[in-house]
Every structure is written in structure tokens, then in C-alpha cells.
What we know:
single chain, alpha+beta, Butyryl-CoA Dehydrogenase, subunit A, domain 3, 4-stranded mixed β-sheet, 4-stranded antiparallel β-sheet
Amino acid sequence: MKLSFxxxxxxxxxxxxxxxxxxxxxxxxxxxxxGGPGDEHMFPEERKVWEQKLAEGGWTCVGWSQEYxxxxxxxxxQVIFFEEYARAGAPGRVGHIGEGLAxxxxxxxxxxEQKKKYLPGIVAGTExxxxxYSEPSAGSDLANVKTxxxxxxxxNKWIINGQKVWTSLAHESDYCFxxxxxxxxxxxxxxxxxxxxxxxxxxxEVRPIEQITGTSEFNEVFFDEAQCEADDIVGAPGEGxxxxxxxxxxxxxxxxLGQQMQFxxxxxxxxxxxxxNGAAQDPAIRQRIAQTHAELKIMRYNSMRILSGQSGSxxxxxxxxLIYKLFWSTWHRSLGELAMDVLGPECEILEDAPYGxxxxxxxxxxxxxxxxxxxxNQIQRNIIAERGLGMPKEPKGAVK
Length: 400
């Protein structure tokens, strides 16, 4: 496991840290520590401008090869970028779905025409993406999607009908990548397609979902005869599951280290409040803070082990990678509970909406969803049991 960085990497660290120090000023000063999960409603337009500021400095898509507009950074340098970005309190990225999911998937599975069409806008920070995976009856069971795609030969277009749900930032996005069923007689993971769809068109309706925080960063998206160009299917019809699984592999990448720095920022705020209001004098609170700190370090070391470059015996992810989602989501939920106990019982009393939540209150409410989205804890435990420990799979009905 690699835990240190070369002198060249440390020089890179100074470069990005200095750039952030210089540029997170003026109009962008108010964006520090804002945005991201549970706080996406804050300064959306200003954060779009920030995306383009990052692009001007060459700080978008740092892990992409230079051929596609990135910096071609090594794994170590990507880790450093995400760590320093979070350490500086730079705002939550509104372009992260395009940069971290859509772009790498198009690079890996897309045609040259698709790369030329979509990658430049992601790199420039001018075109934002959302993810059309989950449906009312297909959350963790992604293969149960019901959204349909039929090919209109007369107009040479795919026609999309169906519904997606829990679509983050759909109301801000220019494009959506959508899993839909191209073979209407197919079941499970067979007969699916992976489509790149323009959001600003007739036949697409975005309905915000109001969360317990009173804000709406998730949405329902309805497709009613929405159109997709014939050349905007990634892979062939029926290969959507392969492309979708490839995309999920990118979701567990180096950005996890940046996520952990954001967790550290939240823990630091909890500790600061505990010191200022006297909660730190409670031995039980001190013990919970110490345990939370130790577990965050364990999370980091496990991530470094995953990113050290070794794969599993079957060529896939190491078994250690299988526990990551379960670990961080459970840890983050516990951090929210610790924050509320540190704030004291008065933090549970609020006037009518709009609530004017503090960041820690908002974090507590939002992290209740951490163990659900991106794969429920129950599903994650099944994956660990079956793929990591080699236990028998759950009995399932026959699939034709």
C-alpha cells in the first residue's frame, strides 16, 4: 500500500493549493465550503461560473488523458487534487457527474464522434450532466428498469418513454445518460441500451422532489416521446448493462479521497462546536469524537490500499473495494448523529419552513439517505457476501 508521495507529486500539491488560494477570492469567496450533498441548493449559478474558472486554469478532468482535454494526471496526482480541493473548502462541483461518470464512460465505450461531440463541453465546464438510472421500481435492482426506447426508422431517432427518479441536479443539467430497454420482450440485464439525451427538448419534464431539509436537489424525470439521435446510443442495443456497469466502476475512483476530506471538514466543524459549547467536556462525547476520527483514518488507508493499483484475483476490483460504500455511508450517518448530540437538544427545535438549517443540521438530515442512494446497505452486504466471501447467492426465480 502506497501512503507517501514523490517530490514531484508534492510540487503538484503546491501548484493546486496555490491556485485555489489565489482564485477562491473575490466573487468566489462566498462559495467556500458550500454546495455538495445536502447543500446543492446554495449558489448554483455562481458554482457554474466556478466550473468555467476551473476549466480556464486547466483544473477540470485532471485524470483524463491530454488527448481528450485533461491533464493526464497520475493516480497519485488525482488523489492530491481532490484532497487539496476539499481542504481549501472549494465548492461542491456541479460538473462532477459529467467529469466523473459520463465523460469516462464515453471515453471507454463511445465512438469518436461521441467523444468529439460531448467531451469538450465537459472539460470547459459549460455542459452539465445528470444520471438516469433509478426508477420507482428499479433502485438497487437496476436491471428492473421499465423505461423503453424504440427506434423510429423514418426520422432516424430513438424515442424514449418512461420515468427516472432521484435524479441529482436534473434541473440544472444539459444532458442525461439514460438506461432504457431496447428489446421490449427482454427481462433483467438483457435488452438494454445506454443513451445520451439532451434535456432541453419537448417530451422531458423535470419535477423536483422536496427533501426533509426543505430543499430539492433530487428530481423525477419523465420522458414522453423524448428524442435521442440515432448516433447517441453508447455501444449497440442490448449492451446497455455492460456500459452501465463500466460506469459504476468509475464511481468508486480517486474522488473518494476528496470525499473523505469533505468528511474531515465536517468533523472539524463538529469538534469546533464541541469545544465552544462545552460538549467536549463530556467523556462520552470525547470518546465518540475519537472513534469517529480513527474510523475516518481507517477509511483513508483502505482507499489508499484500493488505489495502490492491485486488482483482485479475477482481474476485477479488490475485495477491499467492496466494503467502501457500506463503510462510508454508515460512518457518515453516525457523524450526523454525533453532530446533533454535540449541538444539543435545542438544535431539534425549528420554526416553520423555510427552516434556516445550519450546515450541521442539514448534514444530519441529508445523511439519512447515504445508506440508500448509490446502493442500499442491504444490497452492499449481499455483494460483499457473494463476491467478496464467496457465499451462495440468494435464490432467484428463473429468468428467460
